[in-house]
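seq as requested:
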Amino acid sequence: MDVELYNRFAHRYDLVTTIASFGIEPIWRLHFSQRAKQLCQQGTIVDVASATGEVAKLVCCSKTYLIDPSSIMMEIARKKLEKKCPHHKFFYLTKRAEEVEISESVDLISAFMAVRNFDNLERGIANLARYLKKGGYFYIVEIVNQPNLLGKLTLWYLKKIVPKIGKVLTGMEREFYLLGESVEHISAQKIVESLERVGLEVVEKGKMFPPIGISILARRR
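C-alpha cells:
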C-alpha cells in the first residue's frame, strides 16, 4: 500500500471515491455498516483501512479500533468521530494490517474495500484474525478480479478512466493506476483461502450489486 498516495489526497478521499465509483461505494458502505452493526451489537470492533472513518461513523459501535497507515486519514477520522459519535470510545492506530497490535480480543473485524491494499494478504489477515474472540466475525467487502465481461470492463475502467478522474481532482494519475492494479491481483478465492488457513470458517459469501464486488463473512469457531 502506497501510504504517501493516501496522505496526498486524504482531504479529498471521500469525494474521489464517490465520483470514481459513480456513487456505488457509499451505497455499499452503508449496506456494509448496517450489517457490521448487527454483528457487533454493543461489542468491540476493529475497522481496518479505516480511511476517513466513514464505516466507524456509520457503525458507531461502543468501542472501535480504527487502523490505517495514513496519519492524515486518521486525523480526519478523529475530528469526524469526535463530532458524530462523542460518547463512544475510539482508538486510532496508525499501522498496517500486518503489524498492528491490539491489547484485547474483539467481536468483529471489518474490512471494507481494504484487503486488496494489504502488502501481504495472508499475513495481514492472519495478524488481525488472532484478535478475534471465539464466535467473532471477520467481515469483508471488496472489489476483486472476476473472469467475465463485467470484470474486464471494471479493470479497464479502473486503469484507464479512474486515473484521469484522479488527475483532475488531485493532480495525480499514475498513483490511481496502481489502485486498479491492486484489484487485478486479488480474487475471492484468495481471500477465502487466507481466512480458512488461519482457522476461520466462511459462513456467508455473496455478490454486491452491481456484481463487481463480493462480500465474505467468516467466523472464529
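Residues 3-220 form a domain with the Rossmann fold fold (CATH 3.40.50.150).
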